[in-house]
Design goal:
The structure is a homodimer of 485-residue chains.
Chain A lengths: L73 E4 L15 H14 L3 E4 L6 H11 L6 E7 L2 H8 L5 E5 L3 H6 L6 H17 L3 E5 L8 H14 L3 E6 L6 H12 L5 E6 L6 H11 L3 E4 L13 H11 L1 H7 L5 H12 L23 H6 L27 H10 L6 H17 L4 H17 L7 H19 L13
Parallel strand pairs in A: 1-2, 1-8, 2-3, 3-4, 4-5, 5-6, 6-7, 7-8
Amino acid sequence: MCPSLTDGASASTDRSEMVGIENTNVGRPVPTNGVNGHANGHTNGANGHSSSTQRRNPYAPRASEFLNNVANFKIIESTLREGEQFANAFFDTKTKIAIAKALDAFGVEYIELTSPAASEQSRADCEAICKLGLRCKILTHIRCHMDDARIAVETGVDGVDVVIGTSSFLREFSHGKDMTYITKTAIEVINFVKSKGIEVRFSTEDSFRSDLVDLLSIYQTVDKIGVNRVGIADTVGCANPRQVYELVRTLRGVVGCDIEIHLHNDTGMAIANAYTALEAGATHIDTSVLGIGERVGITPLGGLVACLYAADPEYVKSKYNLPMLREIENLVAEAVEVNVPFMNPITGYCAFTHKAGIHAKAILNNPSTYEILKPEDFGLTRYVAIGHRLTGWNAVKSRVEQLNLTLTDEQIKDVTAKIKELADVRTQSLDDVDTILRVYHSGIQSGELAVGQKEALDRLLREHREAATRERGETEQPQVVAAAA
Amino acid sequence: MCPSLTDGASASTDRSEMVGIENTNVGRPVPTNGVNGHANGHTNGANGHSSSTQRRNPYAPRASEFLNNVANFKIIESTLREGEQFANAFFDTKTKIAIAKALDAFGVEYIELTSPAASEQSRADCEAICKLGLRCKILTHIRCHMDDARIAVETGVDGVDVVIGTSSFLREFSHGKDMTYITKTAIEVINFVKSKGIEVRFSTEDSFRSDLVDLLSIYQTVDKIGVNRVGIADTVGCANPRQVYELVRTLRGVVGCDIEIHLHNDTGMAIANAYTALEAGATHIDTSVLGIGERVGITPLGGLVACLYAADPEYVKSKYNLPMLREIENLVAEAVEVNVPFMNPITGYCAFTHKAGIHAKAILNNPSTYEILKPEDFGLTRYVAIGHRLTGWNAVKSRVEQLNLTLTDEQIKDVTAKIKELADVRTQSLDDVDTILRVYHSGIQSGELAVGQKEALDRLLREHREAATRERGETEQPQVVAAAA
């Protein structure tokens, strides 16, 4: 179970407060990704651990699974296609370009854009983005139709996804009868696109509710024609991981080309499904920032990266600019006017917060996520902690001690009242709180301040702020360096 | 791929707007949960579909898996234990009681409370909740220590979870040496609790990073002593579904008692891990409302219920009061001052919204989630749709047509301006918009209103509001009946 509140001091009575803590890896061996020397065919994650063996990362891809692509995949970032279908997405050209550039800087291998055949604006935006000289490849998708193909190939995209109609078409599909038709049109479109030196992908919708034999027939056919990649989709967002594993694994044995997967999140399993698809041999995962898309969207970029990072941190760090994640999520969140969910992996308000009320030490001694998900790898070094209007003086006292300041309990209660007052206006970050504590402390030390002297404290804080502003030479901004969403 | 914006009309140019749609199951056969007549050992979800075969639900538990508990499980709702460890949870007794009652009414089989040994307040709250006469069983957890046990058994709880120290203890565990110690203390505590007629569970922390043999030894021992249930935990929230499956499946072969699992959500896989654990034979899943808990919390109640409902809707509907889900989430969200995430399964702002800009008909024709996740089963019948300040007259026109009102394009543009103006103040729900449209329409029809007559429209809206208020006999509240979070 979780580190419980039974370990030590009174907990829930005193409105347990949060205490900011530094990530201190207290001398534990860092888990490595070395292959488990005991290659015994068992596929569980445990390992023997005499002190001479390097500790294996139990979340790493299993060496026994040679098809496992958990550390060998590419991301097709679809914020500018799937994301456009999000209820509140109204991206103008400027915003699309900003998002495209940010995603490119983050390091995704592909970005996907709304079909240029959808509208004149889509076509213009597509061309504009293709002209940006991005490092990532640019993809779009079209209906299986020569008209769309002709438009798409002129935009400058690197790849085109040919989608086979709707799933109702698939459902009505009977053995053999329409295969000739599919093959004929698909061949024409695929060959045309290929003749332009452009990558071709072929996808179906609602793959998990499609007839398996029909599905495999289609994919086998287009694989023979020579597509670069086939795609499957959980369009209704209800597939479960082992089901995904099996379909991808089956498909893996049928086609030689790459396999892409597009997973909706209606039952909250899109990240896990993506992970499991990679285990089965998929090569490309569709994502969008914060998962935005139709309904509750698809596999979120940040969540996927977090879980793959847990499996192989070095691989993921080498591919993506992890510290940019928060910035990208904020960019998109602002554009679509949502809040980053409080429980978002890594970047959510709570991702690295702990409930105090217990000695900070006890928190450090508990099984720590930090051995796996290191906040500093994502550019996060501080945790939103105290500074809530319900903050109690105990939490403040912990922080005072962490800062090596000397204050009496009475003084701590006094400064806590000030923190709570400011927190009523806006939540104070840990740095805000540290500033208040240091100013208070030095005021006490110098004799300029005593308990209960509110005006004196206000003056000292104001002077400090003005001095800091002059140093920075910019308009006054509250100094906020926190992991708050 | 997803229903794309290529199907028909201009899409992304005109800032595609949302249109509220009713859930209309347009004559498609409802998927059933009947066992696939073709019991062929293949474990994929597809099926042949001649019109004479009833369509099998591809998300249902597989008949070939007799250990599969996806349709045979219990929920241990831990909002009042794990949830208390959420950064911003400060539940007073009144709130705890309200949450306990709500969870009981929802139908969870167990609720778990913070240890009564943690503080006097925890003990008092535990007793208070035990006295409520709830239908669900009440559990708490304690350290493996007689002092805690003595306190717990007097509170009136139905069950006690004995947690074996910390995982650092487990990690230092060497074969055989401390087993005697564990067994001795555990036997004493377990037998003591059992002698009081109280259920006993035995859990470990950080099970996925523990030595497998040690883990299985401990569980085997306590199983022999006679616990009701053993629990495993992904304390760091990084386990993946197939890894979970294997550990649970292995454990399933070792112990005869029930198996509970507690899954953290740091990499966003807690729901999927819970689902997969049930497939492997787990019997009990720990949840909390919105998943609140330490860091980003654990398996969320709503998300888990959504995914298990997709697998077996009748079973889940028979156990839980699904329409209460939204109310419970709002209750807890308010108590901990968070927003229900916009992409929350079922109850999130976006769960049933579609991006319009395309004919509403095209949306209805696309592969629809509604065949699987029916909003009305969760008491949701309307979708937040138009009413955003970027709403275009096209979306309003769609709604006018849906309401069978007759307005010219010029009149529609006129009323759209009013909606946008009101939406600048606050987002208008679909009912707000319907009201505006009906008032506008009847004003036009009666001759009291013409295009451009802003004051007349304001007056009509005001009169309508006052009449509605008098009818309801309450202080004026904007009438909002929407699925908005």
